[in-house]
Amino acid sequence: MTKKGDFISLADFSAKQLWGWLELARDLKAEWQAGGNRPILKGKTLGMIFQKPSLRTRVSFEMGMLHLGGNALYLSPNEIGLGGRESVADVARVLSRYADGIMARVFAHDHVVELAKYSRVPVINGLSDATHPCQGLADLFTVWEKLGRLSGVKLAYVGDGNNVANSLLFGGAKLGLHVSVGTPAGYGIKETVLERAAAFAAETGGQITTTHDPFAAVADADVIYTDVWTSMGQEAEKAARAAIFPPFQINARLVAAAKPTAIVMHCLPAHRGEEITDEVADGPQSVLFDQAENRMHAQKAILADLLA
Ligand code: CP
Ligand code: NVA
């Protein structure tokens, strides 16, 4: 049995492949809005492994499979004991005998890579400590939908240099965006990620810049993006981070420093009053809930391509 491919990191794909999924997401969204999708995945199943909580990822994958005529099975954090009760390789070997695809949300990125190595069916990364490629693809789809272009768009990511930021850097660089990252010192993007993203940007005319000044980061930005200061698994650092990050809050003052037409994005869940104020999250420039909806459309494109 030969699987079509895995979806582990946006760094693994060409601009052509990314555009293929963006265009398919657009078409599937339009079809769904017009009354429903064709059963492209009739009778197909997706096994979903979760080591961490989720609202968007779980529900958007499950509903997406239903829309396309298939089914999804939720496997809770305690159920499988990935790497504990059973080795990651054996989980992949067994689950891929039952399901046509596997989606996994894990702590260690190596675990999703290992699942892919031993699975006979496509493995989709539903967030690891290193990357969140489904979020990144959906976010590029949202930017394209809202601004009508991707190449040359300035996306300012302000906050923690985390998994979501890494995927925005990889995907943004591949599609020719200027990704401007503003983080506190000590919470920046890993050098290896920056180097890879810069290499992609050099090929596409994209640009990667970093700063520790949030106002410099958002200057002339078309998109302002943030995420929580403390990601899942970092809870012990919450107090220390809460003392350092406040200058990086997305509030009305910071939004005013970007283009007047700038849109505001957040992958959610938001810690309102920390990384983003209510005023901005619920304000006229916010696209937060269209962005959340688009997770479903972008993932349906990935599913329709890899599992059909
Ligand atoms: N953005 C995102 O992945 O949300 P969940 O953690 O709720 O899945
Ligand atoms: N950076 C966050 C994203 C949640 C969707 C986390 O990893 O918790």
Q: Which terms summarize this structure?
A:
binds norvaline; Rossmann fold; binds phosphoric acid mono(formamide)ester; 13 helices; 4-stranded parallel sheet; 5-stranded parallel sheet; alpha/beta; about 300 residues; 2 domains
Overall description:
- With 308 residues, the chain is an alpha/beta fold.
- It folds into two domains: 10-132 and 295-307, Rossmann fold (3-Layer(aba) Sandwich), CATH 3.40.50.1370; 135-291, Rossmann fold.
- Helix content is 44%, strand content 14%.
- It contains 13 helices and nine strands.
- The protein has helices at residues 15-33, 56-67, 77-80, 88-98, 109-118, 133-147, 163-174, 191-204, 214-218, 238-244, 252-255, 278-281, 288-307, and strands spanning 45-50, 71-75, 101-105, 123-125, 154-158, 178-182, 207-211, 223-226, 263-266.
- It has a five-stranded parallel beta sheet with strand order 7-6-5-8-9. A four-stranded parallel beta sheet has the order 2-1-3-4, sandwiched between helices.
- Helix 6 (133-147) packs across helix 7 (163-174) and helix 7 (163-174) packs parallel to helix 8.
- The longest helix has 20 residues, at 288-307.
- The model has no long low-confidence stretch (mean pLDDT 98).
- Bound molecules: phosphoric acid mono(formamide)ester and norvaline (NVA).
- Phosphoric acid mono(formamide)ester binds next to helix 2.
- Residues 127, 162-164, 227-228, 231-232, 267 line the site of norvaline (NVA).
